[in-house]
Amino acid sequence: MAKAAQDKALADLRDTFQGVECPTPLKHDRAGILKMAETLHFRRETSRENLAQRQEAIKDWLSPLKQQYGDVSKEFAIKPARHVVHAPAR
User: Fold this and answer.
1) 16-44: per-residue pLDDT in tens?
2) Closest to 33 (Cα-Cα) out of 41, 48, 17
3) Domain total of the chain
């Protein structure tokens, strides 16, 4: 009984992992595997380029805000306090 259960579990495992394996056309097709690798490489490079373009666009978009923030920070850092609160005399 235990042997039969073990054999069934082993057969189920084999079936599961066969379903996860590489698709049959690519199994023995080196050209297909190379084509898939080239496609993945192209997509990765395209993604990197897109990321660089997006980062540059964000930097350009934030540049005026950064400049304004710097100007405002300098203005507040230089000006002395104008309003001094004194306690009322008793």
Assistant:
1) 766 555 555 555 677 878 888 899 999 99
2) 41
3) 1
